[in-house]
Structure formats: structure tokens, C-alpha cells
């Protein structure tokens, strides 16, 4: 099969200089003898599509390799395999070879690619048992793809990984559908970021309309969004960041074991733990995404800091009173408030709020 290489998001079939490409028809079942060439017949671009006819184009995608998932810059690296197939009535006659440069084409491209894509293409003409003829293109695409990523639930976040296939033709001329008899797939054994992410195997195909402006005015273009998902493995962040912060907060309750009259000792212990937590927060900043809003992990650490501040305020204002009843009440109250906050964060994670 002839293979064309390209370095853009375009998946077109027409080269800059028009050349004739003769592709042999692949017979899926035995059929009549083939005795002439289509290039001597009437132009298929005219015979194959009537005025105003909306072409059905089936698309299938296989995520063959997914590389680095960059949540901060909202992109991911991937290699994908695309199959594009459409009905071509002009090829229903018995032929042996066809000139693909003169056929109708869906003029597809990848809408959310970043920079240049490495692209290879093969073209096949297939006839089924009923006599219907289809043109099928096979594209191997590799590059970076943009994806809007949400980190509010970091490190319990699940990110969409989407490749958007769009047509340059208006929506009235083409109808993109997922290929029904062959499902889309994700090859998980080639996933390069498996230490940090769990890659899902399911692919969702969603039809969409891309609104764009052209020299003739605004246009709606048909598109298919193929989406798989990756869930972050949160054990590292919970053990190395949140658990350490939790232990520091738990140690702050030891200040109640000191004599109530020794206010200086209580405040010294509380301030040491507070400064330690703040220092640790700056140290672990290199391990968490730097974004403009608070993640769930940020909220948990800030809650621990607020808890330590409240303990310091309590020791400062009640140190002059010598009451064991107040001390017991404070221990129970602070413990209950802290674990209530931890439970709220836990419910937030489980419910995905």
C-alpha cells in the first residue's frame, strides 16, 4: 500500500501537486471477473456524490501508545491509529484499480493537536459480498494533544484523554459516526506513565459540532471526540504528604499533657509544629501541580495549619485560667472538630463532589 508521511494535523488525501495513485481493490468475498480500470470510466467525484448528498463516514480509533500526561500544561503525548471508511457508489462497477486522487474525500484533521504531528497513511478500496464498495484509510498519528484538565480533586483526580477528529467540510455535507462493527480500543501494555496513572480501557465516542469562522462566514463542522480516561494513583501523595501533616497535627495535642501553668512550654511546642508544617508544605510544593486554584490536597494541608493556629490561640488565651474541666472540654472539642473535618474531606473524595 502506498504510504504518505506528513507533519501536520491534516489527514487529507490530496498532495500539493496532484498525482494519480492507483490502488488495487481488495475483494472480501468472491465476485465477478474484473476486466477494466476505473481511470478510463467517468469521473468518480461526480458520479459518487449527488448535489446536496450527506456522506456517512465511519471512524475508529486505537490508542496504541500513551506517553506523558502533563496536567499543568494541559496536554498529553500519544500515538493513535485511525481507520476512516466511507461508501463510494462510483466504484461498484467491476474494476481492478482506482485513481484515489479523483475520489470524494472527507477532508479530516485532528482538531486538538499541538504543533506538528508525525503522520503516515494507507488507502484501501474494499468490496463486500453485497457488491458495495468502500474506501478505507488507515492513519498512524503521533504527537501532542491538548486536553482541558481539572485538578480540583488532586490527588484523586481522573483525567479525560481526548482526540478530536474533525472535517473541513460543512456539517451539511458529512456525517461522522463511530465504526459500529469494530470497537475502539486502548492498548494499556504500552502505557509509559503507569507508575503514576491507571489507564482505563474504555473509549467513548461523542459527536460534536466545531464552530469556526472562514472567509464565507461562520461554519459548523462535524466532529467526533474519542475519549479514554486515566486515574491518578494517590498512594504516594497520601502517604508522603498528607499522612506526615496529619502526624504533626496529632502531636500538637501533646501540648495538653504539659502543665497548664507552663504556658511558655505549650506555646513553644505548638509553634515548632506549626513552623515544621509550613516548612514541609514548601518542600513538597515541587511534587504537586502549581495551579491558580486550591486542590483537595491543598485544602487538607491548610486545614491542618488552621487547626494548629487554633490550638496556639487557645493556649494563649486560656493559659491564665487553672481549670481541669476546661482542659478536658478543650481536648474533646479539638479532637472532635479535627476528625470531623477529616471525615468531610473523606466524604468529598468518595462522592466526587
From TrEMBL:
- Give a GO molecular function annotation for the protein: transmembrane signaling receptor activity
GO CC terms in record: membrane
Annotated Neurotransmitter-gated ion-channel ligand-binding domain ranges read: 52-201
Q: Give the source's domain of life in one word.
A: Eukaryota
**InterPro entries for the chain:** Neur_chan_lig-bd, Neur_chan_lig-bd_sf, Neur_channel, Neuro-gated_channel_TM_sf, Neuro_actylchol_rec
TM segments? 235-258, 270-288, 300-317, 329-350
UniProt topology in membrane: Multi-pass membrane protein
In Swiss-Prot or TrEMBL terms, this protein is called Neurotransmitter-gated ion-channel ligand-binding domain-containing protein
- Give the organism, scientific name: Macrostomum lignano
Amino acid at each position: 500500500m502506498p504510504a504518505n508521511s506528513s507533519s501536520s494535523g491534516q489527514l487529507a488525501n490530496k498532495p500539493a501537486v496532484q498525482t494519480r495513485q492507483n490502488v488495487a481493490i481488495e475483494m472480501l468475498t468472491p465476485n465477478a471477473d474484473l476486466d477494466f480500470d476505473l481511470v478510463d470510466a467517468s469521473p468518480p467525484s461526480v458520479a459518487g456524490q449527488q448535489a446536496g448528498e450527506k456522506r456517512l463516514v465511519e471512524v475508529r480509533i486505537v490508542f496504541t501508545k500513551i506517553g506523558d500526561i502533563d496536567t499543568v500544561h494541559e496536554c498529553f503525548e500519544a500515538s493513535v491509529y485511525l481507520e476512516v471508511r466511507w461508501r463510494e457508489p462510483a466504484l461498484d462497477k467491476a474494476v481492478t484499480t482506482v485513481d484515489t486522487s479523483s475520489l470524494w474525500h472527507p477532508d479530516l484533521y485532528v482538531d486538538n493537536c499541538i504543533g506538528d504531528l508525525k503522520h503516515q497513511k494507507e488507502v484501501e478500496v474494499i468490496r463486500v459480498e453485497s457488491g458495495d464498495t468502500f474506501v478505507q484509510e488507515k492513519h498512524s498519528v503521533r504527537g501532542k494533544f491538548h486536553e482541558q484538565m481539572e485538578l480540583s480533586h488532586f490527588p484523586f483526580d481522573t483525567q479525560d484523554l481526548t482526540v478530536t477528529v474533525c472535517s473541513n467540510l460543512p456539517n451539511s455535507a458529512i456525517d461522522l459516526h463511530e465504526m459500529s462493527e469494530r470497537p475502539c480500543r486502548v492498548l494499556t501494555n504500552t502505557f509509559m506513565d503507569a507508575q503514576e496513572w491507571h489507564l482505563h480501557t474504555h473509549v467513548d465516542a461523542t459527536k460534536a459540532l466545531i464552530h469556526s469562522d472562514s472567509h464565507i462566514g461562520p461554519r459548523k463542522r462535524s466532529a467526533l471526540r474519542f475519549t479514554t480516561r486515566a486515574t491518578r494513583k494517590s498512594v504516594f501523595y497520601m502517604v508522603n504528604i498528607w499522612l506526615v501533616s496529619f502526624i504533626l497535627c496529632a502531636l500538637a495535642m501533646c501540648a495538653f499533657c504539659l502543665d497548664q501553668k507552663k504556658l511558655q512550654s505549650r506555646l513553644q511546642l505548638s509553634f515548632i509544629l506549626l513552623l515544621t508544617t509550613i516548612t514541609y508544605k514548601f518542600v513538597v510544593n515541587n511534587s504537586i501541580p502549581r495551579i491558580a486554584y486550591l486542590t483537595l490536597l491543598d485544602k487538607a494541608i491548610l486545614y491542618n495549619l488552621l487547626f494548629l493556629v487554633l490550638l496556639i490561640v487557645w493556649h494563649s488565651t486560656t493559659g491564665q485560667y487553672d481549670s481541669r474541666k476546661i482542659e478536658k472540654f478543650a481536648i474533646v472539642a479539638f479532637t472532635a472538630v479535627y476528625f470531623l473535618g477529616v471525615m468531610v474531606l473523606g466524604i468529598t473524595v468518595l462522592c466526587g463532589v
